[in-house]
Every structure is written in structure tokens, then in C-alpha cells.
Design a protein that fits this description.
Length: 434
């Protein structure tokens, strides 16, 4: 009960953020209480750090890359191109925006897709005089697709990185399993979003109100470097993975190269456009503190018996056959993520799978189902992921307020069919590539 009380109090502080208290400080406070009361020991600190450090610093580096590109106008350029490809047809534009969101989520992680693309799309919609219901459809689509299509690569979601590191899944193996599964998730996402919002999507819009995409480019040097650098980064992930090089080192090196170009470090800073101090201030440094602090608190829950309970549930699911084990694991961890946040739920699921005595194929299905459930499960509720809470805050700052009730009415309808389709695709595909 003490471990549970510490976790609940920590989660409340993380969500509430009284007087602007950073999520990292709240999580560290919870960890300090857990250490002081003996819920976790000092030896657990090293264990948790080993689990989270690579994922956390990879995530920070990816967001730094995203922020630099955003300051240079990269995402606005892409969004304007997509708006023009729509050709004035709102019902063509809608799936194009969803596809753009999926592409950004794959490369820049779900947080980058939700937090960077959404304000740009919203600004374009306002310029095109979209009605409120139509704008809401596109905005919700941006937030939804950012998570539901954050499966394909290890770097597409912090959940993926933690899981791949915990179970020693290589970058190439992970992609071989999850890229096809992600395509199913994307197709299901498109179908459910279209079915839900089709009546709200404007039939036409005036393309002439849009600026030329090239007008959005603020730093041509960074823009020209973007595509080669991203391609090289992707290749580097596949090459360095078998060598045991941490993903954080590879991503961090790419972030430094892009910062050097943006800051004109080789010319004394002359001609620099991107405000690098602003970018670094905007990087999610609190996530570093949050990861170690919250994971310690959750580790305390595991020490108190939650892991054993979860492992027992997984063993029972594993005895029901591969399909039930896959779908059941995915929905169980999704439900857990929706009430306790997906980052703690990821660790609970990983520890439980590691302890569960099940067949090797069933275990691997559960590993990937844990990823799917924690990537998609947060869409049930606003507290399911920090990205969703930040997304809602960004929208409120832009005058597009979505209440928790509105969010859950959409999330509870849209998420289950996408989650089910994705888990079934995983059950079908994994044995094929094993």
C-alpha cells in the first residue's frame, strides 16, 4: 500500500504540475520518498538507470533535431506542400495530413509529430477559414496518428526504445517485425478517423490563400542538410546496432552535426538564423529526471508485488493460445497505460514479461504487444501519455481548447478498433519473420 500511495501521489503531481512544478522534480520527489521509506533500495537506482538512460537521451536528441528543423521551417514547408497537394479538396487533404503525421512520427517520434505538426496544421486551417468542427477533425487526427503510427522504428517512441533495450532487440529485427504492423495500424487509423470525422471535413478550400512552401524556409543551410542527414542517421542505426553502439550516441552525434550547421559553428556564428539557446531551453530535459524518478517509483511497485501479479496474468493469457496472448497482453497494458501513464506501464509490462514462464514465440509476441499497447493505449485518456497532456496544453494556447470529456469520447471510440487490428496483424506477421 505504501508503494501504491507513493506512485499515486507522484502521478498526481506529474499531471497537476502545481505552480508550474516540472514533471522531473515531481518524479524525483516520489523517488526520494520511495528510497527514504525502503520501497526501493540504492541498488535499484543503478538497475533503473541502466534501463532508461539510452532511451531518455535518444529522445532528447531527437527532439533537439526536431526543434532545429522546426525553427528552420522544415515542418511548415512540408505541411504547405501537403496542403497544396490536396488541390482544394478537403476530403483529399485529410488523409494526406494523416500520412504526413505518420511519416513525422516514424522519424521524429510521436512527441515531435504531435507537438510540432499540430500547431502548423492548425495555423494553415485558420488561414483557409476552416469551420471549427473541420479544424477540430484535422487537429485530433494529428494528435491521434502521432501515437498510433509510432510503431515502425525503435526511435519512433520512447516506449519502443525502452522495450528494445530491455529485451535486447536489434534495430533491424525490430523494424522487420513492426514496419508491416505499423502499416496496418496506419490503415486502421485512416479508416476510423474517416468514419468518425467524414461529415465535419469541408468539401473544398481555397488553395490560393496558401503561401508558397519555399517561403516557410527560414534557414536554407539547415533545410538542405536535413534530408541527407536524416537518411544517413537511418542507415547508421542499422549499421551500428549489431556493433552494440547505443542509439543515444548515434542520435546525439546527428543532433550535434545539425546544431553545428544551424549555429554556423565553423564560421564563428555568422549568418546563423536558428536560435540554438532557445532550442536547447525547449529540449525536454525534465524527461531525464522524470524517467529515472518515475521508473524508480514504479520499480517500487514491482518490489511490492505488482510485477508478480502482472506476470501471473500474462502466464494465464499465454496458456490460452498465441492470439489470446497477443491481443490480451496488448489490451491489458493499454488499459494500464491509460490510468497510470504509458512510461510506467511499459516498465511494468517488461518486468512482467521477463518473469512470466511462457513459450519463446508467445514471449516475443508479448514483448511486441507490450509496445503496441503502450503506444496506442494512451489514446484512451488524456493522462495516458505526457505527449497528450502537452498537446492539449499547446492547443489551448492556440485557442483550440479540447476538454478531457471531449477527448475521451473520441479516444474511447477510435482506439479499440485500431488497437485490435494492430495486435491481430502482429499475431499474423511475427511467426512469418521468426
Amino acid at each position: 500500500m505504501l508503494a501504491l500511495a507513493i506512485f499515486v501521489a507522484t502521478l498526481v503531481l506529474v499531471i497537476w504540475q502545481p505552480r508550474g512544478l516540472g514533471i522531473g522534480w515531481s518524479a524525483l520527489a516520489g523517488a526520494a520518498v520511495a528510497l527514504a521509506t525502503g520501497v526501493v533500495g540504492w541498488g535499484d537506482v543503478g538497475t533503473v538507470w541502466e534501463i532508461v538512460w539510452d532511451a531518455t537521451f535518444t529522445f532528447v536528441a531527437l527532439i533537439v533535431i526536431s526543434l532545429v528543423l522546426d525553427e528552420a521551417g522544415f515542418f511548415a514547408w512540408a505541411a504547405l506542400h501537403v496542403a497544396r497537394w490536396g488541390g482544394g479538396n478537403g476530403r483529399r487533404l485529410f488523409p494526406l495530413v494523416v500520412l504526413l503525421g505518420a511519416a513525422i512520427a516514424a522519424v521524429f517520434a510521436n512527441d515531435g509529430a504531435a507537438l510540432l505538426l499540430t500547431p502548423i496544421v492548425l495555423a494553415i486551417l485558420l488561414r483557409l477559414d476552416f469551420p471549427p468542427a473541420g479544424a477540430l477533425a484535422f487537429v485530433v487526427a494529428c494528435g491521434f496518428v502521432a501515437d498510433t503510427t509510432s510503431l515502425p522504428l525503435v526511435v519512433s517512441n520512447l516506449v519502443n526504445i525502452v522495450t528494445a533495450n530491455f529485451f535486447d532487440v536489434s534495430f533491424g529485427r525490430y523494424a522487420a517485425v513492426m514496419v508491416p504492423v505499423n502499416l496496418v495500424s496506419l490503415a486502421a487509423t485512416l479508416l476510423v478517423l474517416w468514419a468518425y470525422f467524414r461529415k465535419d471535413i469541408p468539401a473544398t478550400y481555397d488553395v490560393r490563400q496558401l503561401e508558397e512552401p519555399r517561403s516557410a524556409i527560414r534557414d536554407p543551410a539547415v533545410f538542405r542538410a536535413a534530408f541527407p542527414l536524416l537518411a544517413l542517421l537511418l542507415v547508421a542505426y542499422f549499421v551500428t546496432g549489431p556493433l552494440g553502439v547505443p542509439i543515444a550516441f548515434v542520435t546525439g552525434a546527428a543532433a550535434l552535426v545539425l546544431m553545428a550547421i544551424a549555429g554556423r559553428w565553423f564560421s564563428g556564428g555568422q549568418g546563423a538564423v536558428v536560435d540554438l539557446p532557445k532550442v536547447l531551453r525547449g529540449a525536454p530535459w525534465q524527461i531525464v529526471l522524470f524517467s529515472i524518478g518515475m521508473y524508480l517509483v514504479v520499480y517500487g511497485l514491482g518490489n511490492a508485488g505488482l510485477t508478480d501479479i502482472a506476470a501471473g496474468v500474462l502466464v494465464w493469457l499465454g496458456q490460452q493460445g498465441a492470439l489470446v496472448a497477443t491481443v490480451g497482453t496488448g489490451f491489458v497494458v493499454a488499459a494500464l497505460a491509460s490510468v497510470m501513464n504509458n512510461m510506467p506501464a511499459t516498465l511494468v509490462g517488461a518486468l512482467a514479461i521477463d518473469r512470466a514462464d511462457v513459450a519463446p514465440l508467445t514471449r516475443e509476441l508479448m514483448v511486441y504487444a507490450n509496445v503496441v499497447g503502450n503506444d496506442l493505449g494512451p489514446k484512451f485518456t488524456p493522462i495516458g501519455s505526457l505527449a497528450t497532456l502537452l498537446w492539449l496544453h499547446v492547443l489551448a494556447g492556440k485557442g483550440q481548447r479540447i476538454t478531457w470529456g471531449q477527448y475521451m469520447r473520441v479516444g474511447l471510440v477510435l482506439t479499440p478498433p485500431v488497437l485490435l487490428a494492430t495486435l491481430v496483424a502482429l499475431w499474423v506477421w511475427l511467426p512469418v519473420v521468426s
